[in-house]
Amino acid sequence: MDSYWNLLKTRGVARIMSAQLLARFPGGMLSLAFLLHIERIHHSYGAAGLVLAAMSIGQAIAGPLTSRWMGVWGMRTVLILTATVCTTALGVIAFAPKLPIPVYMAIGLIAGLSNPPIQPAVRTIYPKLVNSKQLTPLFSLDASAQEVIWVVGPVITTFVATQISPVVAIALAMCFLVFGGIWFITSPEVGRVRIPRAKRKVGAVLVRPPVMLATVCGFLLVGACAAIEAGVVATFGHDSPDSGFVLAIFSIGSLIGGLAFGHFPIGPWALARRMFIMFVGMALAAASLNFWWLAITLALSGIGIAPALAVMFTIVSASVKFSETAEAYGWIGTGQLIGAALGSAAAGFMIDSFDAHGGFWVAIAFALVGFIIPVIFKRAHPDLRGKDVSPLPDTEPIQSLRQG
């Protein structure tokens, strides 16, 4: 734990980490808030899943593009523009009178397209704040700290939505986005780090095997988590706070796992091992939908999540040039958001057809494939034990022949 405290004492680390967590806090609130809001209006989990899918698809499309734009127009310009549009779209969903599902989907798509690229921005800033030896623990600390979003977010959302109104829950998420976004955008670190303009075409960074591996595994990991979220909500109903507590325990397991595994060397089997832990917990959870059984098994599953994310961030950092880091993390975010879209939609329809168990079956399928992929493509996973995990420099030394 001393190493984590030393990291937080490093100039700018605690501030930028806290600001980005607050700005990204709606990520732990909006899925549940929209699920409860749309289901209450249209009385269908499938319809709610479609709206969530539309928003996630918008985020997936925008991820690599807005991340790349930060190298052209600067971080602050892109973040201010996207945050403004996104907040407006969320306000329409929350406060407009009852609208048809296609209209909700269109507005959700706009909200997703304008989702501020805060995560790629902060992942790009981190290597400029610490040395290479501190970078892996910093990614682990960040992956663990972001679980606060998933621990507190669902609890707050469930309590506010069930005790007051889903509309108020969405409005609260908007407040986090606005005030957290202002704090992050005005942080000195955002102004000091300048992302070089990428020289290659959009998507070229995916040619690097570690980036593709992290993108695919992120898609499967988040897809499994989105399906679990829908399954848990369907298990306890939209009027019970129990779903928020179970999901919070799920995230606490991830927080513990991230802190415990943060200093483990990242070998070629690191991602597969962590994804296997997640799969086992989800498979056990489907055996019974009792509150305490779900709490215990999902806590076990969560132990693998933050460590898996930390491995993904680290293998990408060590495999791309600094000018490509924002876009690479944007693609990882895109994979995760597509996973959230498909996981939510598939779980919603399976829940409508087979009750809450359907959501858990979808999650198990995503998690199983998420374990198999890094096993099959182990060669794409770099062995980083004892190696520098900082991004590759954009200018490399040129060897010349010495005459004379």
Question: How would you portray this structure in words?
Answer:
It is a single chain. The protein has 404 residues and is mainly α. It has one domain (13-380): MFS general substrate transporter like domains (Growth Hormone, Chain: A, Up-down Bundle). It is built from 18 helices and no strands. Helix 12 packs parallel to helix 17 (322-354). The radius of gyration is 20 Å and the shape is globular. Residues 396-404 have low confidence and may be disordered.
Number of helices: 18
CATH superfamily: MFS general substrate transporter like domains
Which regions are unreliable across 5 or more consecutive residues at pLDDT < 50?
A: 396-404
Radius of gyration (Å): 20 Å
Q: Characterize the main sheet.
A: none
CATH topology title: Growth Hormone, Chain: A
Our measurement of the CA-to-CA distance between the termini, rounded to an integer number of angstroms, reads 56 Å
Which of globular, elongated, flat, extended, rod-shaped describes the shape?
A: globular
Strand content: under 5%
Fraction of residues in helices? over 70%
Average pLDDT value? 84
Under CATH at level 1, the class stands as: Mainly Alpha
Any idea how many domains? 1
Number of strands: 0
Keywords:
Growth Hormone, Chain: A, 404 residues, mainly alpha, disordered C terminus
Question: Helices, strands, pairings?
Answer:
Layout: H1 2-9, H2 13-23, H3 30-42, H4 45-73, H5 75-95, H6 101-113, H7 118-125, H8 132-145, H9 147-163, H10 166-185, H11 188-192, H12 209-236, H13 242-261, H14 270-285, H15 291-302, H16 305-317, H17 322-354, H18 357-376
Helix pairs in contact: 2-10, 3-4, 3-9, 3-10, 4-5, 4-6, 4-17, 5-6, 5-10, 7-17, 8-13, 8-16, 9-10, 9-13, 12-13, 12-16, 12-17, 12-18, 13-15, 13-16, 14-15, 14-16, 14-18, 17-18
